[in-house]
Every structure is written in C-alpha cells, then in structure tokens.
Amino acid sequence: MTRLPQNPIKVGVLGATGTVGQRFILLLSTHPFFKLHVLGASSRSAGLAYSKAVRWKQVSPIPECARDLIVKTCIAQEFAECSIVFSGLDADVAGDIEAEFRAADLAVFSNSKNFRRDPVVPLIVPLVNTSHLSIIPHQRSLNSLQKGFIVTNANCSTTGLVIPLAALEKAFGPIDTCLVTTMQAISGAGYPGVPSFDIFDNVVPHIGGEEEKMEWEVAKILGGIAEDGQSFDCRATSPLLVSASCNRVPVLEGHTECVSVRFARRPPPSVEQIQQAMRDFTCEAQEVGCPSAPKEVIFVHEEVDRPQPRLDRDFQKGAGVNVGRIRPCPVLDVKFVVLSNNVAIGAATSSIINAEYAVLTGVVASDPVA
Amino acid sequence: MTRLPQNPIKVGVLGATGTVGQRFILLLSTHPFFKLHVLGASSRSAGLAYSKAVRWKQVSPIPECARDLIVKTCIAQEFAECSIVFSGLDADVAGDIEAEFRAADLAVFSNSKNFRRDPVVPLIVPLVNTSHLSIIPHQRSLNSLQKGFIVTNANCSTTGLVIPLAALEKAFGPIDTCLVTTMQAISGAGYPGVPSFDIFDNVVPHIGGEEEKMEWEVAKILGGIAEDGQSFDCRATSPLLVSASCNRVPVLEGHTECVSVRFARRPPPSVEQIQQAMRDFTCEAQEVGCPSAPKEVIFVHEEVDRPQPRLDRDFQKGAGVNVGRIRPCPVLDVKFVVLSNNVAIGAATSSIINAEYAVLTGVVASDPVA
Amino acid sequence: MTRLPQNPIKVGVLGATGTVGQRFILLLSTHPFFKLHVLGASSRSAGLAYSKAVRWKQVSPIPECARDLIVKTCIAQEFAECSIVFSGLDADVAGDIEAEFRAADLAVFSNSKNFRRDPVVPLIVPLVNTSHLSIIPHQRSLNSLQKGFIVTNANCSTTGLVIPLAALEKAFGPIDTCLVTTMQAISGAGYPGVPSFDIFDNVVPHIGGEEEKMEWEVAKILGGIAEDGQSFDCRATSPLLVSASCNRVPVLEGHTECVSVRFARRPPPSVEQIQQAMRDFTCEAQEVGCPSAPKEVIFVHEEVDRPQPRLDRDFQKGAGVNVGRIRPCPVLDVKFVVLSNNVAIGAATSSIINAEYAVLTGVVASDPVA
Amino acid sequence: MTRLPQNPIKVGVLGATGTVGQRFILLLSTHPFFKLHVLGASSRSAGLAYSKAVRWKQVSPIPECARDLIVKTCIAQEFAECSIVFSGLDADVAGDIEAEFRAADLAVFSNSKNFRRDPVVPLIVPLVNTSHLSIIPHQRSLNSLQKGFIVTNANCSTTGLVIPLAALEKAFGPIDTCLVTTMQAISGAGYPGVPSFDIFDNVVPHIGGEEEKMEWEVAKILGGIAEDGQSFDCRATSPLLVSASCNRVPVLEGHTECVSVRFARRPPPSVEQIQQAMRDFTCEAQEVGCPSAPKEVIFVHEEVDRPQPRLDRDFQKGAGVNVGRIRPCPVLDVKFVVLSNNVAIGAATSSIINAEYAVLTGVVASDPVA
C-alpha cells in the first residue's frame, strides 16, 4: 500500500451549497489528507459565511471546518492555493467554469456531465477504470498545462451498473448485451428536484437523458485507451450493447437496478462462478490504498430479497455496491439486482476516490511546500 | 352486440371479507345484470352482517346491497341458488373449496392461483384469450357435470404484460423473447400484506413465486388449444421466452412494467407500426358487449413520462391497460412501459368480464327460470 | 328549494393552468349551470390551446370543454362576457388582477388570500357564513359598481376547522377557546410545491403564515355583520381565541386536524349532544339548493380510527367535512378530529358553492339575455 | 463523574428477536461495560444461532458478538449469570416472564408496559427521574429479594413529552395543563406493525391506549416519592392535566409532538426564558457519567421549520430530544414542537441509561467476582 501524504492537501469545492456540494463537504470534513480550503458558489452566496449561505439538507450538522468559511465566487483565482478542486456544479454552468479552472492550471474532479464525452477527459468510476488517468499527460499537453486537468466521474445510475459489469468482464471476458431497468431515488435529482406531488404514491418511468447516458457511458468506462495513449476506444473493438429503462421511484436514497447480461463466452459462466467473481473483484483504488475506497467493491447478498435501498445503501458508507439475486435469465444468460448509493459512490465519493488515487499515484503532487 | 340478460343473475362471492372480495362486491353492486346474492367467508365471519364481519378498506363506503347480507360459510349448499360464484379466496383454502363448488355443479370464476396450471382449467385474461372457454365442455365431461366448471384469471403482473404482447402477436406474429421488470404496488399483496416498515422509502426486489408465475402463465394464455379441444398447448409450437424481474415499490395501486421484446419476424415492425397495432387492438369481450370491458383495451400515451400509476391507474376504471414510451431497444427490438391496475383488470375486473363473456356466449345460462 | 337558472351562466377562470385552476376546470366541466367560457393565465400560456398550455396533474383527463379553449391573458376585457370569474391566481399577482376585474364590474370569486382581510370583502366558507354576502351592496357602492364585487373563500386549513366550530356555536352558543394542530397534505402547497426531498419520511412543523391565517380567519367567518351592514365585527363582542399549530405531512390530499374546544356555556354540552349537533348541522347553501353543496355538511364517524385522509377525503366529492373521535378533553371541554379535502371544500369547491349561492339568491343575475 | 466499572457486566436480552430486542443488541454490542451474554426469545427461536433466529431489520448488520449466540428460552435459569436483564418482550408475555425473572432475584430493565403502573415499580425516563430508583429497596423487601427488581421506562410518546416538561417545571415550577398532539412514526408499532396499506398516503388518528398512557405516565414520572419512600405520589399534590391526541403518520422513525402548556406561575415565563431553561436543563444521568446519556438533554432549534424527524432523529444517536418553534400560545401560555427518537430514547436507549445509572450509583453491583 502506498504511503499517505504527510501534509494536508488543500482542496476547494465548486457548487458548495448544492446537494452534491454538501456531500463533498461532509466527506472532506473528516478526510485523512484533504483539507477544505475554499468553497465556491453563485454570486448570491458569495461573501456569506457558509452556514448562512447554505440550505443545509443533510442528516448530520454542518461540519465545523466549513461552517464559518466565507463563500467565494467560482473564479479560478479564488482557488489558486488549492491542489484539487471538486466540482458539484449544475450542468448549466459547469462547462464554462470547469474549463476556466483547468485553463488556470487547476486539477478539477467533476461530478458534472459536461466533459464526460470529451475525447481527452477521462470518465472514471474509481472502482473500475482508474487506469484511464493515463491520458492526463496528453490532456495537459493539448492545453499547455503543467498541473491542470479535468477528470469526471460517471452518472449515478451508470456507476451502479458498470461496477458489476467490470467484475464480470474481468473474470469471464466480454459481455455482449445488457438490459437494465433502474428504480432511482429522488435524491438523484438534486434539490429542490422532484416535486412531492409528482412522485408520492407513484413511479415516473422517465428521467431526461438518463437512458442515453447509461448506454453511452458504459462504453467509455469499459473501453480501453488507444495505443498512443491519446484517446479512448469507447468499446470500439468489442461492442457492448446496453439497453436502459430508467424510472424514478419514491425512495430517498439508493438506486436499485435489475440487470440481465449475455456473455460473449459460450457456454456462459455459472451462477456460482459469477457470485465468486463478484466477491473476488478488487480494484486499483484499493490496491494503492485510497482511504475512501470500500473494503469490498461488491458485497454479494444471499438473502432472496436483498439488496434493498433502505437497508443496504449505507453499508461501507455507500462506497461499494450491493448485488443480490444472481440467477439464470431465461432470455440472456444471467440476471441480478444491484443497489448503489447514488449520493455516495454514485456522486461525491467517486470524485474523492478518483482524487485520492491521483494523489497516491503522483498524478497530483501530494506534498507541496507548505 | 349481444343482447344483455333480461333477468338479474344471482352471484356469490367467496372470500368476501378479503381484499379481492371487497373489490368484487364494489363492482357487483352496480353491475347491470349480476346481482349479489350470497357472501361467503371464514367461519369467524359467518353469521354476521357483512358490515360487521368486514374490515372495509375501500375508498367508497360498503354498498347498500351488501351491508346487511348475512355472511355464510364457504360451502356449496349455501350458494346453490347462484348461477355464478366469484372466488377471491386465499390460495391456502381456495383449492379445496373451489373443487367442492365445482363438484356441486357450480360455475366458479376464481382469482386464486390454485387451478391456473390445471390442464383442463382455462387461464383467461378477458382482453386476450376468452376463446379458451371452449375447453369447458371437456372440463365438465371429465367431472360429470352439467353446469359447473372452474375458470381462473391470471396473476396481476401477468395480466399487465400479456395484453400488449397479445396485441403485438396479433399484428406481427410470434414474439420470440421478452424481458420484463416490474414495479408492483403494495395492494397486490392483499391485507395486511406488506408491513410498512419493509416498504417505506424502499424497494423490495423479490416477490415470492411471482417471476415464475409471469414466465409460465404467459405461455398458457398466449398458447392455443389442441385440435381435439381437450388441452392447452402452452406455446408448445412457438415458444416465447419470458424473463421477469419482480419488485415491490412504495405505490398503493397500479403495477408498472418495463418490457423489451424481440419478434420472430425480421425485420421487426417499426415503433409507429407498434403504436398503431396497440391502439387498434380489440378483443372478443368488447365484441360480444361485456359491460365491464374497457372501451380501449390499450391506451397509448404520447407524453414522454407516462403512464404513471397515480395518474393513469383509474382510467377506464382500471379495466384497460396503459402503454407508453414505445421506443427501440438496443438489445432486443422494442421496449415500452405498461401500467395496469392490479386490483381492477389485474384481479376482480378480469373475473367479472370473464363471467360476463361466459353469460353472453351461453357458457353460463343467462335467463334461468325465476 | 330555489329554481335553478334556465340558461347556462358563462364563467371564467383566472390562473387556469395552476393547481387550483385545474380543479376549477374539472368541477365546472360538469356543472349544471355554469359554463366554462374563458380561461386566463400568464402571458407565457396566452394564445395556446389549454391542453398545450397546461401541465395537467389531475387523475381524470382534461375535460373536453376546456381542451381546445385558447388561453387568454388575465385582463378584464377578455372576460367581459362572463357573469362570474373564479380566481385561482397566486397571491403575488392576485391582488392587482382581481382589483382590476372588480373595477371592470365583474363578479370575482377568489380562492386567493389577498382580499380576505379587506373590511368590505366577505370571507365566506359556504357551509357556514353565506349570510356575509349581504355586504356586497356596500362593497359595490364604495366602488361605484353595478354588478362587480370580490368574494373570497377561506384558507384550506381554516375551512376544515370553522365548519365544526360553526355547528357547535349554532347549537351551544359561543366557543371560548380552541386549540388545533393540523396535519396538512402536500397538495395544499400547489405545484411544484413541496420538494419530495423535504417531506418524504418526514414532518415539517411549519407552514409560512398558516397559523396566523387560521387564528384570524376564524374570527371573521364566525363574526357577524355590523348593524349598518357595512362592516364585519370579526368577533369583536365574543372573542374566540384560536391557537393553531400547523404541520405538513406526507399525504397527498386531505387535511387532518386535531381540535380541542372550550365552550362559554357551563356546564358544557355532552359528547352525545355534540355528536348530534354536528350531524344535525345544515346550512343555507343546502337550503337554497346549491348543486355542489354536500348532502351532509358534517359526516360524523363512529369508528375509533376515522376519519382518515386516504379513505374519507373523497366522500361527497370532498364537499363536506368528516369528524370523528369526539371525546372529552381533560384540559378544555371536548376534542375531536376533522378531515377536510383541501383541494375541494378547502379551495375550488368553496368558491363554486359561494357563486352558486350568489346566483340562487340573486346577488349575481342568473338569466341574462342570451 | 463516577468511575466506570472495571470489569464487563454480563447482561441478557429478553425478546431478542423483536424490534426492541434488535435495538438493545445494537446498542449493547458497542457498550463500554455491558457485555451481551444471553439472548432470550420464544421457543420457536430457542436453540438456533441468533443470526438464524432473527429477521434482522436494522440498517447496520447483526453485531459479531450476537451473531452466533444460541438463543435461549425466556426462563430465569438461563440468565442466572446476568447482572442485568433487558426486556423488549411483547406485552402479552412480558408480565409473567418479568415477574418470574424478578422472583429469581434478577434485575430487570423493561421497555414493556406491564409493570409501569405497579405502585412499587419505578417508571423512569432517565433524563428526568432517575431519583425514583430509591424505591428499589422497598420493592426488594416486598418480594424478599437481595438483588432483583423491575424498573420500567416510559412509552415512546410519553418520553418525548415529559423531558421538556421536566425542564420547564425545574425552572419555573408546576405546569398546570398541557395539550399535546402527536405525529408518531410507524416504527413505534413494532414489526410487522402497521400494514403499509393502512398508512401510505394517510394519517391514522388513533393509536390504541396511547393517549391514556401519555396522560397517566406523565403524572407518575413528574410526581415525587412519598416520604416513607414506599410509594409514588403520581402528582397527587399538584395535578398536571394532560390532554393527548395521538396520530400515526407515514414516517419511519421519530415522533413529532405539538405541545401547549400553561404554567401555575403568573405571569408565565417568557419565550426567551423558556428557551434558556430548555438549553440549561441537565440530569443526574449526565452527572454520574452514564455513557449513553446525551451531551445535551434538549437541543433547541432556532430555524423556524425544525425539528423534523428525518433530519433530527439521529442527532446524539437519538439519546436526547429536539425542541423548536417555542412561541406564545394564544390559549395557554406557550407552545412548541418536540421531536424524539422513538426507537432510541423512546425505547432501548432509555432502558440502557437506566441500567447504567443503576450500576454507577450502586443499585446494581458493578464489579462482581469474575
């Protein structure tokens, strides 16, 4: 395991008053080596103490380290002392601001969707494809930067899906096709998000853009990097067809997904082999010692009615995923249920593990002069 | 359209105090030609006025015609004057009681699962396969009966699925494979049913026996009858593989199902053709004039986020189904969302339309001597 | 009973695309003598067919009579042909628009709060104080009008409270003090209203301005009119102290209120007397034959656990109130539970009965020349 | 602060598979000096490993220290080695079993209601009246015991109410009257508890026996002990009238209560004085250093819309209470909102603090020979 940084690493949060921003702050407030240094939000909040600017919606109180920080506007010079900037910005502003921050040679780890399809920006689920960080030198070079870059993490519903898919491909080779139906929590829509009148006693069988994201992001995440290290192959060689049906359900936190897959390999692996492969799956973020990585990437349930969002979403602080009901699929090969915490590994936790990995592998300098 | 019966037809309800029984009573209380005559329940309720025996859980009050009926035990002689007996019995007692009623030469329309797999008992979704009633003479003959028989209707989640599948097969020939993920309402579990502690802010990704029922019942319903008229072929010749994933969600009423299908026909029909075929679909229950049949078997929604259980479950009193989001499936051919009312067409309404059809086609005698 | 108007009376709806506006349209679409003639909304909607302008959120489809009406802006000349204008406008615009409509000699029945405290505008709960319409001549005279006026109905939580209070005062004389704790449905907040993230698995013990409204409105509604007929006494002579605690709970429709009261009369009436007085309570709106008035103003439940919002809110189409659990209060005299439908008698239904009463008593001319 | 025991104290749990039993086990698994030694349940569970016997319904996994314990039947000899026995038994069996355990000279801390009204059994809310333990010698003497006794804690809704009342009486003298309306969580009803069909989108304005419990228990808890130390005065001298209205609402955990009080003292204290008195309130359980006592008995919120169950129920692990919205009551003197965690301080946490207090004050011997 890698040595942890000796000195605290100053970090900033963009969109600090929003839902994702609040989660960043909660996670960073107890982090072993990241230290909250600057909080950025809209000009409406700038100049206020964080506790005055935010409509805090978390179950635990505002961390002491954030309460009295004066909120700044989201301009790069305010964050000049930060080695890392986490972005929880809304998509309508994230594009411009993150680009400006990168141009100012800052390292941006973004939860926003804006740069996910950029050909030189890695889209990283930290329990799956941290290797994609290898494109950073090329991204820097294109932008004439020394330290700056943008790394994105995936959409919350993609994240829950792609982790077990990665475990299966690692053990059994390419997956051919995948059908997934999601039952997504309301917290995935931010705040104020879904009006209660729309989702009480109801299911909404549509989430704008979500199915397209799932179908596309999986291909980039499970794809490799071209030989010259300068582009992603987005599963060009061995296509993986994904068909997603996305639903909003009256659940606060935790996305449940029913997944069926077909392997390229004939005959396909058995249910027992798949259970074992999921249990055995490990990732580089664990190997290099990322403090926020879960102990078990995939926890496999044996009870017939698990995982369930209310009971399982907080296991390992939501940093891993839960899989259950692995069983044969009469149409494809095998089907199972995934439960992932959309506000943890599906959002802020992913960004933070990505950043930990970047620090521990030297992509971000870890021990700057104090 | 067929002539409606001139005289009221006396009917009984088995399991009258249960959830399905209460729905039978509501529907029968305003029926144009069925007349509630006997209510049967357990010995604990027998002898009491219905209003004293029942824990009424419906939104409208107990119908006047049922309020003061004295509840009987579920033995055939109490129902001797009934031309039709509807059964909403629990599966643990339905088998014996329904068999006894049939042996007493009574016509039983059952919502219970016990006889669904019986080789001479039709499993009828009234908007799909009323033609299966043609096996009744053979069933009577095997049991040496003049009038008695058992007809079952399908499981609530099967019903929602099989209606659009039937529309598609009617228009485009056999469906090869079908993947379905359900999000089922708590009312499907009866009363007391699902503990609130289990389903609040939660999804339970398992309903005992439900997936097997869906996968099997579709084959019987969409199958034909053998040439000799004495057995069902259960889709022996052109198998339709169904893979079901069943979930309970925090919704009171209305099962939502995400369905993907692959046709045998190549190339498959277009989305527009499928929309049209669903809209055009009609059934024999409509043709013979069943009063409880919906005007539109399938209502096709154009809004991107419909159907939704809370908004659409009561359309046409829940007697039809709602389909929306018909779109290409990257893995199979096409995918769509179905919403069906599990306590209406998914339960009591199906039994009643089946009985109406039997009356209107002479399978049950409609104008007995007074 | 009064003779109903022979000719349809043309009516308009202000705020037609909003939550209350949608309810007005549903109720008016099947009304025996009101006829939807003009729909008004913001300039964003004006010029569109209603079905294109509205985000329809009701369980039944958009009524045919409204679907193709072209939405107008909320200026009086667009409504010149309307004998009555119903207002479901938001409070931020209702003041100016309703004043302009009155100035144009139009009769406005408003669900908005803006004019409720106006000294010459009656605040009418139609099952309680339709007699307050007698101030209309004075209101017209002050504004130099022939036909125009503004009548308001009460806040939804006030309405549920004041109806049983009126029944008690009618039978037993003045109530001294009243403590009420409300559990209010989310639909009371309009659309988008309460974010699901705020109210799922939660109670919010505060609704802005609601407690003040309840404490104040009761005094005006249960007060008389001064002898000169030109002002309300707002309970100046026999004060009724009300203390309200208002809560939002995760319920879609139906406000539940726990009420304790103390009578001026000593000894106070018995529980049995109170039950009887509630059952016996009738109102002038019934006497003159308002078609939307409920058959029973107060339905008194005997079951120990009723009324309940989900089971009782739709009784009598929500036009009456439900009372249950009448029992002694160890601190004041008696306590009970009220359930009223906040979107029916708590909003649009009240306005409509008020207008029916005005027509049937000649305050609004009923049979204008065609 | 008192010295903590040096050696672990062996404890048992009666009703270990039930809802309260599971909470006892969670809390005891990480306790600084109590050590889980025996788990008792019905004969159906006896003989099984705990993990096989229980339907575990908690968010965190079964603690390691309980997982493999073999469940025993609830007979005293199985618990002979336990210095303390916690009872989470259902009321229908708790009476006999707890009596037998006491007769066997065991110290029983019970969450059940059976002995709460017993004239020599203290009813202790640990943040209020631990002084009532002084009756134990008399209870032992009556039963000819050396060590055994029964101590009960209060009903969950009583607990939330009585803590702020105690703070007010401590600062301002007797409270005269108190009206309280509760909005209680479903977890208060145990498992399976409230059927989802009854409480979804609903309020149930009745909880059997709950109002009587609240009205009565407050008098015993806030009353003193007679001079001879052999009975409770149950507020005989300065009566405190309580009127409770109890409601079940669709919330998982956390009871919200709207409270109005009238003081004997005229004039009553101001809102500011009351806020301060609540903040300043401390209890003996804190003073002797009970490890499970909260740091702040009452946390007073300043936000206008707090406390809320979802956001505040887990503050201080649910061991304290939350109060907010302290404001004048137009009818009595002052009103406020209380939020207490019904499964923590409202149940198992109370029993455990009571036991900690008994150990730290020598009522239970703390360092027995190993």
UniProtKB/TrEMBL annotation, chains A, B, C, D:
Active site location: C156, H255
Reaction(s) this enzyme catalyzes, per UniProt: L-aspartate 4-semialdehyde + phosphate + NADP(+) = 4-phospho-L-aspartate + NADPH + H(+)
Residues annotated as signal peptide: none
Cross-referenced CDD domains: ASADH_C_arch_fung_like, ScASADH_like_N
SUPFAM superfamilies, per database record: Glyceraldehyde-3-phosphate dehydrogenase-like, C-terminal domain, NAD(P)-binding Rossmann-fold domains
Gene Ontology MF, one: protein dimerization activity
UniProt pathway annotation: Amino-acid biosynthesis; L-threonine biosynthesis; L-threonine from L-aspartate: step 2/5; Amino-acid biosynthesis; L-methionine biosynthesis via de novo pathway; L-homoserine from L-aspartate: step 2/3
Gene Ontology annotations of biological process type: lysine biosynthetic process via diaminopimelate; methionine biosynthetic process; threonine biosynthetic process
Cross-referenced InterPro entries: ASADH-related, Asp-semialdehyde_DH_CS, Asp_semi-ald_DH_pep-lack, NAD(P)-bd_dom_sf, Semialdehyde_DH_NAD-bd, Semialdhyde_DH_dimer_dom
EC number(s) given by UniProt: 1.2.1.11
EC main group: oxidoreductase
Record NCBIfam families: asd_EA, PRK08664.1
Function recorded in the entry: Catalyzes the NADPH-dependent formation of L-aspartate 4-semialdehyde (L-ASA) by the reductive dephosphorylation of 4-phospho-L-aspartate. Mediates the second step in the biosynthesis of amino acids that derive from aspartate (the aspartate family of amino acids), including methioinine and threonine, the latter of which is a precursor to isoleucine.
Protein name (database record): Aspartate-semialdehyde dehydrogenase
Organism: Serendipita vermifera MAFF 305830
